[in-house]
């Protein structure tokens, strides 16, 4: 018989003050269960934080990523403008994580009212309907939200039916307690095979306690994840005050994303709205991004079996109009045999269509550095007020190379934030980073004077 934990779960109403990671708690749900006793070893924001990924990868995938496989621009980073030389069009493991196959472009099939085309939902449906799993952990919209749209109010559920899975359609842009159902899983003898869907921090914590659930089979779908809002209210305020949507339309919002054309795309029940996100006020960015997300260094969800995202997928212009989320392909990253099995089952069930390999063009390094220098959160730390004044969509990288830009940008921005949290102590800050993130920081610090200057400014202000 399993030992009964001697520590009580923490009341979610006490977030974040009573949670171990305090203001950097990502509200993953672990501490709201009896598994709170595991938090010191499982939390992505305590102790070694995301540096744990280096040791966990081999246990999960059978091998570590090839950290020496990393792509840099063909021209020197010392140039003061965007490089004209293209990066490699193939993904590199140092950034994208363990790759069992090429990164694919994919679309979901037969998933009505999906935010995108239903890739994640389609895989979950195929696994459940083919009796490969007994239950699916996914995030639905809260049933407790009364009288208003609940697109940003996440509620974890154990899905046992097609209708249950369909409740999980759409991206919830606020911190989501996916692990809140752990005790329910452990106490239900009918659940022997589980599919877990989660963002980076939830997947890392789940992998840390997975063996304690004593399940026969476990599959994990991850998403490329960055910059969630701390609360559902913050997400709604971002739409109202940042995107400046008509207040009368807020209850029609079905989802939003920071897209590859450097615009926020907002999908409502009767319209589609876009707004360049570098025009958003800095105060909006500050309030809209959870502090846990500013300490995240695993944008690509390296511990999931299969990962769905969009940053490496192309945006194709259609007749002068904007490509919509629900018309676009997403990227499918398969990390191991379990991930390959999920993709195969979903294709056989006609829930998933593979459109070809994800490729790219353009150079990413200078754009990553320039974005960091102009980022509202970074400007708040170093007092800089520069505005990016060039056509980023026209000049910037595409496809896989846009993904490289986005990965590097988030690592660099978050390193600066972590450095500030660690009082300018580079050794302490670097201990929180997985090796691939340290390598990327080192490259820019050595080759990009502007980024090195930002580090010096933060250290000088401590």
TrEMBL record:
It holds the Pfam family FrhB_FdhB_C. It comes from Fragilariopsis cylindrus CCMP1102. InterPro entries: Co_F420_Hydgase/DH_bsu_N, FRHB/FDHB/HCAR-like, FrhB_FdhB_C. This is FrhB_FdhB_C-domain-containing protein. Residues 192-355 form the Coenzyme F420 hydrogenase/dehydrogenase beta subunit C-terminal domain. One of its GO terms (molecular function) is oxidoreductase activity, acting on CH or CH2 groups, with an iron-sulfur protein as acceptor. PANTHER family: 7-HYDROXYMETHYL CHLOROPHYLL A REDUCTASE, CHLOROPLASTIC (PTHR31332). Residues 109-182 form the Coenzyme F420 hydrogenase/dehydrogenase beta subunit N-terminal domain. Residues 67-86 have a biased composition (Low complexity).
């Amino acid at each position: 018989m399993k030992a009964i934990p001697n520590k009580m779960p923490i009341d979610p109403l006490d977030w974040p003050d009573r949670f171990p990671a305090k203001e950097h708690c990502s509200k993953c749900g672990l501490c709201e269960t009896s598994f709170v006793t595991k938090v010191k070893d499982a939390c992505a924001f305590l102790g070694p934080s995301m540096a744990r990924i280096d040791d966990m990868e081999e246990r999960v995938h059978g091998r570590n990523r090839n950290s020496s496989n990393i792509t840099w621009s063909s021209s020197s980073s010392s140039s003061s403008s965007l490089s004209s030389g293209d990066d490699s069009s193939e993904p590199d493991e140092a950034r994208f994580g363990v790759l069992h196959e090429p990164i694919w472009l994919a679309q979901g099939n037969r998933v009505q009212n999906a935010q995108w085309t239903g890739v994640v939902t389609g895989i979950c449906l195929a696994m459940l309907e083919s009796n490969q799993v007994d239950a699916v952990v996914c995030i639905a919209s809260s049933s407790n939200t009364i009288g208003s749209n609940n697109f940003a109010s996440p509620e974890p559920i154990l899905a046992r039916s097609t209708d249950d899975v369909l409740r999980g359609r759409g991206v919830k842009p606020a911190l989501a307690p996916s692990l809140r159902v752990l005790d329910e899983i452990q106490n239900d003898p009918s659940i022997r095979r589980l599919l877990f869907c989660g963002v980076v921090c939830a997947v890392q914590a789940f992998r840390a306690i997975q063996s304690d659930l004593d399940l026969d089979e476990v599959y994990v779908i991850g998403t490329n994840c960055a910059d969630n809002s701390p609360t559902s209210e913050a997400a709604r305020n971002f739409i109202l005050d940042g995107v400046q949507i008509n207040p009368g339309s807020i209850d029609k919002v079905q989802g939003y994303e920071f897209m590859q054309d450097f615009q926020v795309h907002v999908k409502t029940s009767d319209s589609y709205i876009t707004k360049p996100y570098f025009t958003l006020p800095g105060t909006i960015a500050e309030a809209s991004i959870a502090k846990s997300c500013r300490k995240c260094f695993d944008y690509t969800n390296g511990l999931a079996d299969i990962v769905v995202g969009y940053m490496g997928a192309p945006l194709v212009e259609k007749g002068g109009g904007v490509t919509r989320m629900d018309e676009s392909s997403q990227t499918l990253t398969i990390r191991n045999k379990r991930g390959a099995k999920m993709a195969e089952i979903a294709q056989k069930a006609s829930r998933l269509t593979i459109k070809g390999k994800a490729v790219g063009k353009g150079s990413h390094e200078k754009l990553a550095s320039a974005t960091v220098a102009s980022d509202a959160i970074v400007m708040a730390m170093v007092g800089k007020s520069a505005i990016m004044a060039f056509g980023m969509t026209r000049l910037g990288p595409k496809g896989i190379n846009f993904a490289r830009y986005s990965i590097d940008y988030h690592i660099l921005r978050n390193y600066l934030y972590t450095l500030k949290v660690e009082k300018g102590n580079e050794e302490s800050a670097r201990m929180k980073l997985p090796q691939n993130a340290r390598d990327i920081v080192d490259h820019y610090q050595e080759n990009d004077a502007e980024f090195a200057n930002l580090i010096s400014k933060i250290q000088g202000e401590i």
